[in-house]
Amino acid sequence: MKNILIIRINWMVKAMAWKQIANKICKHQLREPLIVSAIVFFATARDAHAYIDPGTGALIWQMLVAAFVGGLFFVRNISRRVMSWLDTLKGKSKEKGQ
Questions:
Q1: Which residues span the domain enclosing 91?
Q2: What is the pLDDT of residue 95?
């Protein structure tokens, strides 16, 4: 029974510690050091020593083209909705004018 109690107390202490860290991040006390650490991490270049398969380039091109075409359809859909809404407003204003 003692061991279970000790484990629960340890768990509660760890949970409280994580809560304090989260509160500090939310209160902007740790935001600047995290940003500086991220900049330093991403600014230092290292060799990857990796191999990229030739098919990877084709896959990337396919994703880019699909995103572009999908974006065109999205814009077309939004423009049609806006034009339809404007047409209904014009129709209502003509009815009121007559």
A1: 56-98
A2: 63
Q: How many domains does the chain have?
A: 2
CA distance linking residue 77 with residue 69, whole number of Å: 12
Six token digits for residue 39? 């900049």
- Would residue 49 count as lying in a domain? no
Dist. CA 21–CA 37, nearest whole Å? 16
For the record, the structure tokens of 83 come out as 């034009």
Nearest-angstrom CA–CA distance, 16 and 13? 5
Residue 51: inside a domain = no
- Tens digits of per-residue pLDDT, 29-51? 666 777 777 777 777 777 777 77
Helices (H), 27-53: 31-43
Domain identity same for 38 and 74:
no
The whole model's pTM is what?
Answer: 0.41
Distances from the Cα of 83 to the Cα of 59, 60, 75, 77, angstroms: 36, 35, 12, 10
